[in-house]
Prior knowledge:
The protein is of the alpha+beta class and 105 residues long. It has a domain at 39-105. 30% of the residues lie in helices and 15% in strands. It has helices spanning 20-29, 51-60, 87-97, and strands at 42-46, 65-69, 78-83.
Amino acid sequence: MGIEAGRIDFPNGIPSLERAPQFIADAARRTNEYRFDPDREILFFYSPQDTAASAWLSAMFPFGVENLLDTYHPEDSYMIYRVPPIGAEGLAFFLAQNGIQMPPG
């Protein structure tokens, strides 16, 4: 998605569902413009065929909303899962659920 938006250096793609919590923790530790901000909406993009991602997102973020987005190429549809802001406490809880502890500060 970052490349499509002209941001070739975009580091926030998550290539592996199993590593998603670690990617989010790493993004929260960044100090640059790509730092994860728990006070903003979280967007996950994935294939409509990826039922594992859908199930995982629903379990981890039950208050999120899943939508199918069609493009002008019918074969290029994708899913988007929108999670409202979780805040610092929500981020800490999510990471703790996945065995990750953020350093203070």
